[in-house]
# Entry
Amino acid sequence: MPCGFDRRIDGVRDVTVDLPTGQVTVTGGRPLPADRIADAVRRAGYELTALAL
# Structure
C-alpha cells in the first residue's frame, strides 16, 4: 500500500502486504468500518476481491 494508508482510517494500527499472494491485512485497536477499508483500498489503486472481518 502507498505510504499513509493507515492514516486514512482512524483506528488502523498496521497494514501488512504479502506481495507473492497480494493479500493485505489491516489491523486496528477497535472494530474498523468495512466500507471505509474497501474504499481506501480502491482509492489506493488496488482491486478488492474479498473482505474478511
Notes: The two ends are 19 Å apart (CA to CA). The helical segments are 34-43. The chain has a mean pLDDT of 81.
